[in-house]
Design brief:
The chain is built from nine helices and eight strands. By secondary structure, the chain is α/β, with parallel strands linked by helices.
């Protein structure tokens, strides 16, 4: 099977996970949520009483992932439910500034995608993890729209936070992700930026699938 990779990056609340899953299903290829991996690793390291400023190399050497029937397992333990809490998101951003964490997860993500066909979503996929991806998308939306989406998502999971609390979490996450010295979140130079404000999920999925279709045609015709 010929390798074909679609990188979808963007800030919290831009719709990456939902859109990426639907694009992968529509194209009948694999889906990889790298943010879930960061959340899982952050919870794991925190449970070991480690902090982002510690030397995490030894702890990370023992980390392995697998996906099975849509669920994420870290070292054999299913972590799908735990990683969707607001606390997991905060810890993920805190630990993501540690170069050892990013280096280990980048290696694991590249290994998973090698020679495969994947839609991969995260914050540095097109710039760092898979700079050779055939299609690079950067999803964004207005700040208010992103807060509303994340608030609704958390409420559906039984997490009761106010609009302002979620806004503060996203504001902090944006700053940490975009200003970190190692692999900051930003669009790749050749990424197509899509503002999802006011657009339905179906519209965004259709737009991306059309972009992918044109690129696949181009690949086939060697243009």
């Amino acid at each position: 099977m010929k390798e074909f990779l679609i990188a979808i990056d963007g800030p919290a609340g831009a719709g990456k996970s939902t859109v990426a899953k639907l694009v992968a299903a529509r194209l009948k290829i694999n889906y990889l949520d790298t943010g879930a991996m960061y959340r899982a690793v952050a919870l794991y390291l925190d449970s070991k009483n480690l902090s982002p400023s510690d030397d995490l190399s030894n702890a990370l050497d023992n980390v392995e992932f697998r996906y099975e029937d849509g669920d994420l397992y870290l070292n054999g333990t299913k972590v799908t439910d735990q990683i969707r809490s607001a606390q997991a998101g905060k810890l993920a951003s805190d630990f993501a500034v540690n170069p050892s964490v990013r280096s280990r997860l980048t290696d694991l993500q590249r290994k998973i995608c090698r020679n495969g066909q994947f839609v991969v979503e995260g914050r540095d996929i097109g710039t760092v993890v898979l700079p050779h991806a055939q299609v690079k998308i950067f999803l964004t939306a207005s700040f208010e729209e992103r807060v509303k989406r994340r608030l609704k998502e958390l409420q559906e999971k039984g997490v009761n936070l106010t609009f302002e609390e979620v806004a503060n979490l996203i504001r902090l996450r944006d700053e940490q992700d975009s200003k970190r010295s190692f692999a900051p979140m930003k669009p790749a130079e050749d990424a197509i930026i899509i503002d999802t404000t006011g657009k339905s999920i179906e519209q965004v999925v259709e737009e991306i699938c059309q972009i992918v279709s044109r690129r696949m045609d181009c690949e086939s015709n060697r243009c």
